[in-house]
Amino acid sequence: MDIERDHEPTVALTTDPRQHPAVFAAAFNTGDPAEVARVYEPDAVFVPSPGTPLTGTARASATAEFLSLGLPIDVRPRHTYATGGLALLIVDWTIEGTGPGGEPVSLAGTATDVARRGPDGLWRYAVDNPFGTAPAGPPRPPV
Predict the structure, then answer these.
(1) Is residue 120 part of a domain?
(2) Is 142 within a domain?
(3) Fewest Cβ atoms closer than 10 Å to its Cβ: which of 2, 4, 64, 109?
């Protein structure tokens, strides 16, 4: 099943790598896993905790855990360095509020991400490392 073709997308991808974090936030804030999947390359890596790179269905499951919080993400791009079809994105982000069980949620980090321009001219994550500047250690518990 191709998750990208199940419905018409509502969030437009961008031709400007500096705008990719905002596109990701818009997709994330829909709460729709299919929208979020569109901002990634098919073989992209997601690192939900330091030292835990995931791809494929594991990546989708980890993303779904973040989405299941039902809280919006706020992103603040710090730096974008692009050359050719690659871009390094340094982005501060937060997810805060009350979780689905009534528990307070406060997640934050400085992402170190790599985006690539596709043949269609649109940018997608090749590496999404939300805790990019955090030291590697024991895996974090699921959110």
Answers:
(1) yes
(2) no
(3) 2
pLDDT in tens, the chain (143 residues): 334 445 677 899 999 999 999 999 999 999 999 999 999 999 999 999 988 999 999 999 999 999 999 999 999 999 999 999 999 999 999 999 999 999 999 999 999 999 999 999 999 999 999 999 777 765 554 54
Give the residue numbers spanning the domain of 60: 13-128
In Å, what is the CA distance from 101 to each residue of 29, 31, 105? Answer: 19, 17, 10
Is 135 contained in some domain?
Answer: no
